[in-house]
Amino acid sequence: MTTPAPRRGFTVFEIVVVLALLLLLAAVLLPSVGAFRGDTRQRAAADLIRAELAVARSRAMEEGRPYRVAVSADGKRVRRAPDGPEFATAAGFGHADSSAQVVDYPFDEVTAEVVSEQPDSGPVQIDNWVTIATVQPDGTCREDGALVLIKEEDGSTMRVHVRGLTGASRVVKGGTK
Fold first, then answer.
1. Quick one: DSSP state of residue 93?
2. Cα–Cα distances in angstroms (integers) from residue 44 to residues 5, 91, 161, in the given order
3. What is the pLDDT of residues 91-150, one digit of tens each?
4. pTM for the complete prediction?
5. Total number of domains constituting the chain
6. What is the CATH number of the domain that holds 112?
7. Which structural domain, as residue segments, surrounds residue 66?
8. CA of 104: how far to CAs of 32, 89, 149, 150, in Å?
9. 31 or 40: whose pLDDT is higher?
């Protein structure tokens, strides 16, 4: 009696079943990949704003002159520079650098909007830059306080509260104003 020769391939039915299982697995896993990323871009932008506020405070106290931290009117860039008429035009580094006097660089796929915490006053916009805080040489801020809304394309929002007196900031997840 002869034994049948082993098969050399797969049937169309077997290939379709394997593809169906792979598609089902992909459909289950893809939504969780987006959730795994979470709010990392928003957190990075919030950390960036908080770091620039800290550097501005440090430099203002060291140099004895005010420093301003602002967001571009379109919400896509952040800038730290000495406060004055040359704020918007001074050349700066295109990346975070605490040793640089002026920095100006983009956010990573998020936008920021400055909102005043006081109902009777709005944020100050000068030369297409909306001021978050102007840190004085004594370490206090000129503004009463600000709320920076950091928005993802999907509509999720993270808030950074900046206290006017101390320039301290804290991050709050979610919500809008």
1. B
2. 61, 24, 15
3. 877 776 667 888 888 888 888 888 876 666 677 788 889 988 899 999 888 887 788 888
4. 0.71
5. 1
6. 3.55.40.10
7. 40-173
8. 34, 11, 19, 17
9. 40
Strand bridging mode 103-106 / 67-72: unpaired
pLDDT band at 67 (very low <50, low <70, confident <90, very high): very high
- Whether residue 177 is predicted with pLDDT greater than 50 in this model: the reply is no
The answer to whether residue 144 sits within a structural domain is yes
Q: In sequence order, which residues have a C-beta less than 8 Å from that of residue 128 and are 6 or more positions away?
A: 72, 73, 88
The sign of the CA dihedral 156, 36, 78, 118 is positive
What six digits make up the tokens of 163? 């206290």
Record the tokens describing residue 132, joined without a space: 């978050």
Range list of β-strands (E), 18-108: 67-72, 77-82, 103-106
Q: Which residue has the tokens 């169309």?
A: 12
Does residue 131 belong to any structural domain of this protein? yes
Percent of all residues in the chain with a pLDDT value above 90, rounded to a whole number: 23
